[in-house]
Amino acid sequence: MILKTAFAIFSTLILSCGTAEKQKQTNTTSQTTSETTSTTVTTTNNEIMNSQKMKAAGYKLGTIEYSDREGDCPYTIKMMSDAKEFYYLDPTNLEENYKKDGQKVWIKFNGLRRMNRCEKANPVELVDIKKGK
């Protein structure tokens, strides 16, 4: 009985050591491959990775839009909800350096419970904003 238990433990240790060695070799190969690949990464891949990081951090991508029509908000942020659907936000605290028509921005925001300043957009307070690409 003791001999069987000792054999089982010994076998497990030997098998796990071999697996760790293989994992180490695989990780080294993966690192070498990823280092080689990272030097040839295109701008598009970087943008996708940045996009994924921003979304993971809670940011949403939008586009600043300017309007000079009467009764309309001067600056709104057009947000995409689906491939074809979009909605507008009315940032009450948009900084001057972001007031450029067509500029892409990553934002975090809180909705405001107040009356809308314009029909098409909901008022929000920007918590954080970063320039997008």
UniProtKB/TrEMBL annotation:
Q: Which top-level group of life is the source organism from?
A: Bacteria
**Could you tell me which species this protein originates from?**
Aequorivita sublithincola (strain DSM 14238 / LMG 21431 / ACAM 643 / 9-3)
Q: What is this protein called?
A: Lipoprotein
List the PROSITE patterns: PROKAR_LIPOPROTEIN
